[in-house]
Amino acid sequence: MASLNKVLLIGNLGSDPEIRTLPSGDKVAQFNIATTESYKNKLGERVEDTEWHRIELWGGLAGVAEQYLKKGDSVYIEGRIRTDKYTDSNGVEKFSFRIRGNSMQMLGKRSDSSSAAPSAGNAPAANKGTNNPPVPEQISDGDDLPF
User: Does residue 29 sit within a domain?
Assistant: First the structure.
């Protein structure tokens, strides 16, 4: 039977990436991103529900994260869920979850567009092993349509 473990997230970094260099020279970047859902409750009040996701990037993606990502940046991550099982100091078995990213797209700053960091228009795409469909051309007005 086929299976699929794929996660697609767009969120904002909660802090600068933490970078580790392994004895092999490979880099690992870890950071949290927040995704927020906004809705109205039964009383008509706007409610925001924020989820935090632990992201882990390896190799070239970690290098890109180290060079370009900062707290507050918006980022698109594709990856898979990884589960870690451990026993706490009281002997209770616990689980933690992380996203092992295999593709990343920087979407720019959350609110400050005057920074020197890449934005959506000039940010390098960091994809590894994924095929991204071509982006369609933008049409400015309906007068130039061929039909």
Answer: yes
As a whole number of angstroms, the distance between CA 30 and CA 18 comes to 5
Report the distance separating Cα 112 and Cα 100, nearest Å: 28
pLDDT string in tens for the chain (147-residue length):
899 999 999 999 999 999 999 999 999 999 999 999 999 999 999 999 999 999 999 999 999 999 999 999 999 999 999 999 999 999 999 999 999 999 999 997 765 544 444 433 334 444 444 444 444 333 334 444 444
Domain total in the chain: 1
Q: Phi and psi dihedrals of 117, rounded to 5?
A: -70, 155
Question: What predicted TM-score, i.e. pTM, was given to this entire model?
Answer: 0.69
Count the Cβ atoms, other than its own, within 10 Å of residue 98: 17
Q: What six digits make up the tokens of 30?
A: 């870890």
65: CATH: 2.40.50.140
DSSP structure string for 67-83? HH--TT-EEEEEEEEEE
